[in-house]
Write a structure and sequence with these properties.
By secondary structure, this protein is an alpha/beta fold. 43% of the residues lie in helices and 16% in strands. Strand 1 and strand 2 form a beta hairpin. Bound molecules: 5-S-methyl-1-O-phosphono-5-thio-D-ribulose. 5-S-methyl-1-O-phosphono-5-thio-D-ribulose (MRU) binds next to helix 2 and strand 9.
C-alpha cells in the first residue's frame, strides 16, 4: 500500500531538496535530487514536477539549496543579490503560462532589494534570505487549507437540496501540484472530510493524463469516492447525472477574471453554463496576474507533439501525423461563478478591486 509519504511532491530541509518524479507516476515512486536552479529548470520544463503552485515552490527552494551549498563562493552581498536575482529570472523561463514562479521571483526580489541596502553582514544576509525563501513552503500549505475551507463552505451553502454533492474536476490540482492539500482537489478533500461529498468525477485530462496518472493516484490513496471519465464524456455526464459544481485550478488569472488552466477547462466551463452548473476556479492569489488585463494577453505554452502521439514510447498515431498541442486554454470570466482563494471567494468582476484592497491592507 502507498504511504502518506508517497504524496509528498517535494521534500526539503536546508541544503537538501528532492522532488517526486511525476513522470514516473503511478508506476514508480522515485525522488530526484535538485541541487541547483538549473536542475529545477529542467525538472519544471520536462514536467517531472508540474502544477502552478509547486512549480514556484520548487524553483524558489532550488535557489535556496544552491545558495546554501555554495555560500563560500560569495564574497559580497552584491554578488549574492545578483546570483539570486539571475537564478530566479532564469527559472521564470522554464514554462510560460503559470504565473506563480514570476510572482515568487518578484516577491523575493522586492524583499532582497531593501535588505541588500540595510544588511552589512554577508552571513546574516544569506540566512535572512534563506529564511524568507523557505517561507514559501508554509505559505502554500496554509493557503491550500483555506482554499479548501472557503470552497467547501461556498459550494455547500449553494446546495439547496442538502444532499451529498457530486463534483467534477479536471487535471491534477492536489498534493502533487501544491505543497499540501491542493487547490481544486483541496476543495474536494474538504468536502469529503465534511462528509458532504457523494462522488468526485475527474477527467483523464488528455493529452498528458494528469487526471488518470496523478489525480487518480491521489484519490485512490485518500480513499475518496471517485469516477474517472474521458474528457469527451463530460457533456453526457452533465446531461445524465446531477453534477453540483465543477471545480478546477488555475495557472494564471487576469485582472478581469479570465483564467488560463489545463487544456479542456474551457469546454467544461461552456458545458457547465449550458447545464446551469456552477463553475469555480480554485487558486491561491499568487496565481492572479493584475499586470494582464485579459486572457488575450496570456502566453499559451505549446508542448511537443510526442506528448500527444505517444504514451510510454508506444505510438498512438502514425508517424508523421501533424498535431496541435496547446497545453492550456483560457476560460472567459463570464463563464466563471466564483474564484476561490485563500482570502475568500470572489466574483470575477470584483477580483481586481478585492486583491488591490488586500495588498494595500498588507502594506499599511
Ligand atoms: O501542465 P500542468 O500539469 O502543469 O498543468 C497544471 C494545471 O493546469 C493545473 O490545473 C494548475 O496548474 C493548477 S495546480 C494547483
Amino acid at each position: 500500500m502507498q504511504t502518506e509519504a508517497t504524496l509528498q511532491a517535494i521534500r526539503y530541509q536546508r541544503g537538501v531538496l528532492s522532488i517526486l518524479d511525476q513522470l514516473k507516476l503511478p508506476d514508480e515512486t522515485v525522488y530526484i535530487s535538485i541541487n541547483t536552479a538549473d536542475d529545477a529548470w529542467k525538472a519544471i520544463h520536462t514536467m517531472s514536477i508540474r502544477g502552478a503552485p509547486i512549480i514556484a515552490v520548487c524553483g524558489v527552494l532550488s535557489v535556496a539549496v544552491e545558495l546554501h551549498n555554495s555560500k563560500s563562493k560569495f564574497d559580497s552581498i552584491s554578488s549574492v543579490t545578483q546570483f539570486v536575482t539571475d537564478q530566479l529570472n532564469y527559472l521564470v523561463t522554464a514554462r510560460p503560462t503559470a504565473v506563480n514562479m514570476t510572482d515568487a521571483a518578484k516577491t523575493i526580489i522586492n524583499f532582497l532589494t531593501p535588505l541588500h541596502i540595510k544588511q552589512k553582514n554577508l552571513t546574516i544576509y544569506i540566512d535572512e534570505l534563506l529564511d524568507f525563501m523557505e517561507q514559501f513552503l508554509q505559505r502554500d500549505l496554509i493557503g491550500n487549507r483555506l482554499i479548501g475551507q472557503y470552497g467547501a463552505a461556498t459550494i455547500c451553502r449553494n446546495n439547496s437540496n442538502k444532499k451529498k454533492l457530486n463534483i467534477l474536476t479536471h487535471c491534477n490540482t492536489g498534493s502533487l501540484a501544491t505543497v499540501g492539500f491542493g487547490t481544486a482537489l483541496g476543495v474536494v478533500r474538504q468536502l469529503a472530510a465534511n462528509n458532504a461529498l457523494q462522488i468526485v468525477y475527474f477527467t483523464e485530462t488528455r493529452p498528458y493524463n494528469q487526471g488518470s496518472r496523478l489525480t487518480a493516484y491521489e484519490l485512490v490513496h485518500d480513499r475518496i469516492p471517485h469516477t474517472m471519465i474521458c474528457d469527451s464524456m463530460a457533456g453526457l455526464l452533465m446531461r445524465t447525472q446531477p453534477i453540483h459544481a465543477v471545480v478546477v485550478g488555475a495557472d494564471r488569472i487576469t485582472a478581469n477574471g479570465d483564467t488560463a488552466n489545463k487544456i479542456g477547462t474551457y469546454q467544461l466551463a461552456v458545458l457547465a453554463k449550458h447545464h446551469q452548473i456552477p463553475f469555480y476556479v480554485a487558486a491561491p492569489t499568487t496565481s492572479i496576474d493584475l499586470t494582464k488585463r485579459s486572457g488575450d494577453e496570456i502566453i499559451i505554452e505549446h508542448r511537443p507533439s510526442s506528448e500527444m502521439t505517444t504514451i510510454k514510447g508506444i505510438n498512438l498515431a502514425p508517424e508523421g501525423v501533424q498535431v496541435w498541442n496547446p497545453a492550456f486554454d483560457i476560460t472567459p470570466a463570464s463563464l466563471i461563478t466564483g474564484i476561490i482563494t485563500e482570502h475568500g471567494v470572489f466574483q470575477p468582476d470584483e477580483l481586481e478591486e478585492k486583491l488591490l484592497g488586500l495588498q494595500q491592507s498588507l502594506t499599511s
